[in-house]
Amino acid sequence: MKVGILGGGQLGRMLLQAAANYDVTTYVLENDAHCPAAHLCHYFTLGNINDFDTVYNFGKNLDALTIEIEAVNVDALEKLEQEGVKVYPTPAAIRIIKNKILQKQFYVDNEIPTSAFHITQNKTDLAKYIQFLPAVHKLGEGGYDGKGVQVLNTETDIALGFDAPSVLEKKIIISKEIALIVAMDAKGETIIYPPAEMVFDPVYNLLDYQLSPAKLEEKQLWKAQAIARKVVNGLKSPGLFAIELFIDNVGDVWVNEAAPRVHNSGHHTIEANYSSQYDMIWRILLNYPLGNPAAILPSAIVNIIGAVGFSGDVFYEGLEEVLAMDNVFVHLYGKKQTKPGRKMGHVTIMSSNYSDLTHKANKIKHTLKAICK
């Protein structure tokens, strides 16, 4: 089969690493010839994944398409789907998820628990909802990796809001943030990975480190699994989906957001689960049986993020020290340039002892840094 990937970042890179295990010819479309995935695919096309003609011409001679980012031209994917190209996830599912306004309405329509919200068309609209604060303002489209999200605690914060169609969500008192990855094949069969607990960097709003399987009360796990399955069943699309959820201070579970693709919260599955999230999406694209999502051992992930004060040719300080640790796996994304907050790689740690995981995660966080010489 000839399978194309829209986007050539680190997720595309890891998709291609998993594709090497299968008899598949891979194609990548990205507007950067030096992107992390460019040298790992069979055929690379330089172009804009948001341009209709570029996406259509890229996909029209392929058997299947998938994405590594939802900011793609959905109209072109719909035309390709109509002409017989297999697009997973479906364009209809991508269209819902890529727009946070449509995504929130989808949750309401499908009776999926999510925080209360209002739609704002511009910054001026925020003045109507002062009594609704504290809340989180999320840009309808274009936000990514913590960008396009602004916390508004009081009336004085309104100036920080977005002057474009956005969602104003009631702020939840969060006890834990978790993510569950759900895979659905073309027959509608689903599997679900063990949950991961996410801890975020307060400065960049990026994943700082995570633990999986997350330690949850049994009822919380059941609720989270039921909600995640309901989201994917409602989307009615084959593919792989990351469902991010909040557990609040009284133990209730709420959907935060969904991603219609492989996800940062599933990087650990490469080493720590029998079938990784990357292997799983290839099984779906190639119409093979779903894999086993069970954990081999508990794991933790630490993101390698560009250090503050450094922009330029990357140098990984502390790399040899981290590589000398037991049951630690370093993934560098092949990005030549670092800048503050840029995702440069991640490290997976495996151990049967959760204290060992958190200890090593904190040590790695303070040892391995993406800087410049």
Explained architecture:
Helix 2 (52-59) runs parallel beside helix 3. The protein is 25% helix and 30% strand. The mean pLDDT is 94. It folds into 3 domains: 2-87, Rossmann fold (3-Layer(aba) Sandwich), CATH 3.40.50; 116-170, ATP-grasp fold, A domain (Dna Ligase, domain 1), CATH 3.30.1490.20; 174-371, ATP-grasp fold, B domain (D-amino Acid Aminotransferase, Chain A, domain 1), CATH 3.30.470. The protein has 10 helices and 22 strands. With 373 residues, it is of the alpha+beta class.
Query: What average pLDDT do the residues reach?
Result: 94
Q: Can you tell me the residue ranges where pLDDT is under 50 for at least 5 consecutive residues?
A: none
CATH homolog superfamily of the largest domain: ATP-grasp fold, B domain
What is the class of the largest domain in the CATH system?
Alpha Beta
Q: Rg, please?
A: 20 Å
Number of helices: 10
- Global outline: globular
Largest sheet: 9 strands, antiparallel
Strand content: 25-35%
Helix-strand makeup class? alpha+beta
Number of strands: 22
Distance between the termini: 44 Å
* Count of structural domains: 3
Can you give the helix content as a percent range? 25-40%
CATH architecture of the largest domain, by name, is 2-Layer Sandwich
**CATH topology (fold) name of the largest domain:** D-amino Acid Aminotransferase, Chain A, domain 1
